[in-house]
Amino acid sequence: MDELRLDGNAAAGPLGEVFSFEVTTAEYACRGCGRAGRLGEAMVYDVRDLGIIIRCPGCDYALIRLAPNRDRYLVDLGGTSYLTTG
Amino acid sequence: MVEGFFSRGFRGRRRNQDPALPPGQYLEDGFPVLSAGPTPHTPLEEWDFSVVGEVDEPKRWSWEEFRALPSEEITRDIHCVTKWSKFGTRWEGVSVDTLLDGVETSAEYVTAYCDGDYTTNLPLEEVTGGKAWVAFAYDGEPLEPEHGGPARLLVPHLYFWKSAKWVRGLQLTAYDIPGFWESLGYHNFGDPWREQRYWGD
């Protein structure tokens, strides 16, 4: 057993810090075209009650997809190759 | 928090008095527009429709060729997962049976792909046998871009996100590939009568 392998709770501190950030100034890179920018300058499509799609202003690639799911959210960050927070 | 943020358009659950209304739905007179991205405006001379994937030979129609195919008038109720339903919508379109006529395939699933990178997935048997169309007219008029024109998939027996706007083709697959909303928590099949809104319903 790898002694360095811990369960997810061990990352709670840094993850909690990373996932509580000022969204508008966070920087992303688009997985579609590589463009980097601030999330606050991306394009938002609010699909009534279905979800919210944040798209790259350069290529329309879906950077972040967010949907309500019963009493929670489902979030897909897969359209960003990174997010720089803080 | 979810409730406050996302519940603007949702109506409370009403007693369904109309037996034509699936559980949890309310009747809508208008035709709400839901788009997850910019509205594509593909010129008709660049538009085509294809059947690809697990087929012996891919098929392709230009707009002219597509419009020369036999078409049908379709009147059906439609049901959106955001809880509105609209009765008796009138469409004109080409049956998917016509588009798949003569196609040899062992595929069991189909992914509808669209301008704007939208996809939705369906079992092949849900789009054959007179259950699905590629619609090019609504209420006697050419289908407007905001409603999916020049052509959209029409699968009225499933939640309306399956009726993909701006459809450009069908990819037949041996395995099931969750589409745009199906990969974001929405039900893979989406039967309004069984209220299959989310994963696990």
UniProtKB/TrEMBL annotation, chain B:
Residues 37-181 form the Oxidoreductase molybdopterin-binding domain. Pfam families: Oxidored_molyb (PF00174). SUPFAM superfamilies: Oxidoreductase molybdopterin-binding domain. InterPro entries: OxRdtase_Mopterin-bd_dom (IPR000572), OxRdtase_Mopterin-bd_sf (IPR036374). PANTHER family: OXIDOREDUCTASE MOLYBDOPTERIN-BINDING DOMAIN-CONTAINING PROTEIN, PROTEIN-METHIONINE-SULFOXIDE REDUCTASE. This is Oxidoreductase molybdopterin-binding domain-containing protein. It comes from uncultured Rubrobacteraceae bacterium.
